């Protein structure tokens, strides 16, 4: 039988992600490689096929007619592979489950609990993958995602609700104005330059509204690309940050941070979401996560 004359699968995977997401950068984030690596793979694929697949328009991309045809074929093929792999994994209780979650949640909440997770759920093999962007509804390369959100979910998703998401302002006792600010009412924050993150610009307005504060009066100070860096800046005493309660619970318990103004519900839920119709291992994981979110952190 003749061998299948296919291009590099890495190149096809890079192309499919870039075509589906409309961005080389977002494709790199999904595949955990650099923007340049995706670009090189796409160029290799175009050279192999002898035809352009994308038209570069400024910083954007537009598929050529040939690119549209290949996107449809590659997307269908990867979807079928994904469905088969999920079925095989469900039939093998010992198989590793790939779980996507925000990097800040992984660093500040999951990793400190990994030892207990392994002890409580022996035999459950997990691989956690940092994911900062909105997850693709097809969950490529993942068995589930852990996120804060609310219905309606993408078609085909099944979600375990784990607990309400609550956010609140935090600052360090090292903050030069800590003694003054810690006894002030919430409206005192309208006079402060607040630390914020580009990944969640709506967080401060979400906190302000339940207190009857006008979000338009909030003043933003230094901004950070990711929540992890934002909280490190707060711990260092550089300003007042805002964060989900689970991600700062250990810092509050250790007096590295304080939350004088408490936390408010955002209306979202922490959820574990999957496309699998049934998976007993994910059922076990969801129950464990739900119990952990209801407890104080270790230490």
TrEMBL record:
<keyword id="KW-0805">Transcription regulation</keyword>
<dbReference type="Pfam" id="PF03466">
    <property type="entry name" value="LysR_substrate"/>
</dbReference>
<dbReference type="InterPro" id="IPR005119">
    <property type="entry name" value="LysR_subst-bd"/>
</dbReference>
<comment type="similarity">
    <text>Belongs to the LysR transcriptional regulatory family.</text>
</comment>
<keyword id="KW-0804">Transcription</keyword>
<dbReference type="InterPro" id="IPR000847">
    <property type="entry name" value="LysR_HTH_N"/>
</dbReference>
<dbReference type="Pfam" id="PF00126">
    <property type="entry name" value="HTH_1"/>
</dbReference>
<feature type="domain" description="HTH lysR-type">
    <location>
        <begin position="7"/>
        <end position="64"/>
    </location>
</feature>
<keyword id="KW-0238">DNA-binding</keyword>
<protein>
    <submittedName>
        <fullName>LysR family transcriptional regulator</fullName>
    </submittedName>
</protein>
<dbReference type="InterPro" id="IPR036388">
    <property type="entry name" value="WH-like_DNA-bd_sf"/>
</dbReference>
<dbReference type="InterPro" id="IPR036390">
    <property type="entry name" value="WH_DNA-bd_sf"/>
</dbReference>
<dbReference type="InterPro" id="IPR058163">
    <property type="entry name" value="LysR-type_TF_proteobact-type"/>
</dbReference>
